[in-house]
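Subject: sequence -> structure tokens, single chain

Hey, anyone have a minute? Need the predicted structure for the following. Not urgent.
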Amino acid sequence: MSHSVVVVHYHEVWLKGRNRRFFLRMLQSSLRVALQGLPAKRIEPLGDRMIVWLGDGAALREVAARIERVLGIAFFAAAQPVERNMEALCEAAWKELEQQQFSSFAVRVKRSDKSFPQTSLEAESAIGKFILDRLRARNRDVRVRLKDPDVTCHVEIVREIALVYARRISGPGGLPANTAGRMMCLLSGGFDSAVAAFHMMKRGAHLSFVHFYGAGAEPGESSSHVATALVRQLVPYQIHAKLFRVPFEQIQREIASRAPEEYRILLYRRMMLRIAEALARRDHSLALITGDSLGQVASQTLRNMVAMDAAAKMVVFRPLVGTDKEEIIATARKIGTYPISAEPFHDCCPVFLPRNPALYASAKQLTNAESNLDVNSLLFTGIRGASLLKFEYRSGAVEVAEIAPRKNSPKAQIAMA
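Reply:
Had a minute. Here:
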């Protein structure tokens, strides 16, 4: 059986009213990039769907693997394009189901073009009877079941053609990539921040990333290699991305030597927010993202999060704030970041972690705890030490390039904060 098209149904785009054309154009662009290097002849908007016309030699498994990571898609399917008459529809539906094993089936017809002479119900009845007769002629013990059948054959009747398929593949949903503005995500090597990034990508945000790491370059030591692998895994969802890598051990040592022990983690996080904000402004980002989940660890109590946020002028989004670890892990498995985050590593040197971290700090207490620190000097140390990787998704592969740092003056760097 030959499938020469893929029918793509989008998710929320149909709700967008007057802005719908913009979102459809962005979705079409994402599909075009995702299918680079494959024999896809054209991508055609048709009603409330898009049709990907495949060329000779197109490998459906590779096509599906790439489309699965295009944001904004509810589901898609490899389909047979056939003439708009009942004989052709019945034969195509039979081809879809003939080799499958099932005990119940249904036929669902969507008649977008009302000039087709039969109604949806009439077409469903005729095609279903045709398939049932063929199956019984082969002594198959099968029945029609309209509610929760083992398999459903879908028929979409649109302008000039009809599309027939029996296997739908779920897409990631959400909005098309790069439709909601730029944000900077504080990326650890763990499960949470990568999942938070994915959730914001699904809402159309275009993310850059900043990662803070300690000394060591071997697996189990520095987390820098884990952060790089996470961005590599996530970038196909938004086509290109930046990763700023900031060495943090020197800053950590300074805070540990001059600030009260119980506030160390919160002061580390406040300094990370300041550095991330400075890099975000350079990158024209409008907000920060973290992977915090309310109450998950000591630094993520409500009072501590409010106290940390006081160090930044930008809005800080926490898309996982109401989720638990099991939900986060399930999403990490789904998007392929779980095995990366499960590698052994530590974000920053564990020697500098407090024995009894504060649970309910206020912004005033943290400001007082920073009184012995040269905050601007530490901020400049972080910005000056940052290195930059650029990621781009092309022809099904991710290319990574290291970019030389800018030669801005210390005063200009600090002013950006």
